[in-house]
Please model this.
Amino acid sequence: MKTLKLLFVAILAIAMSTTVSAQTKDHSTMAMTKTETIKVSGKCESCKARIEKTAKVDGVTKAVWSDKTKMLTIVYNPSKVKMDDIQKSLAAVGHDTPKYKATDKAYNALPGCCKYR
Ligand SMILES: [Cu+2]
Model:
């Protein structure tokens, strides 16, 4: 009887460790991220704040824009967010991206210090 109980515990332990490793595998797939750098037109520190805030949607772990190089580096989860949508949002708040240009209306709504055109 004691042996049977021990065997049961051993099987349980093996089953549990299998579940744990399966979960770990699943997590690493979910955490898969992509890093992309695109040019986003802007000028100053407040552009930086606006661009990074706009780009940092759900699924984006990092968004850093440089006012010197005008390059925006984004670390994101492609299964959660599309680069296309981020570019669209940036254009909507007045910043030109490689794929989408800001409308005159959106551009004109930018504060004076941010007029980059
Ligand atoms: Cu600005």
Observations:
- Residues 1-31 form one domain.
